[in-house]
Design a protein that fits this description.
The chain has 126 residues and is mainly β. The chain has one domain: Sandwich (Jelly Rolls). 0% of the residues lie in helices and 44% in strands.
Length: 126
Amino acid sequence: MSVVQVQINEIDINYYNTYLGVVTKSPDTFTLPDTFTDPDPAALCVGSDRIVVFGAWKQEKWPVLDELAAGSKVGLAVDTDRSLHLYVDGKHQGVVAPDIPTPCYFMFDMVSRCTKVTALPVTSVP
């Protein structure tokens, strides 16, 4: 399974929201909403305070995303069963959601919290 990751180089501690996930629309036609209080049916977004699964809210929380700091690496992977996995600093955090549609595109919405990130080479995990 291949993990797509970014490394956080600089962070603004005054903000806490970080969202990442997958979208089913091509990046050429998809625009991230200003906030995820109005969920987009083409996006699955996971944050420390909520998950939005293709337009529906889930009460599940991922507080590990609040612990991201400069130097942290955060990544996503979709396995052969089409389940979305979350990785933080190389450690598997669990399955975010099953039944991810194809095609899908990874997205990292870190603009308010992270002031500088670096896209990392894709890595393989068992």
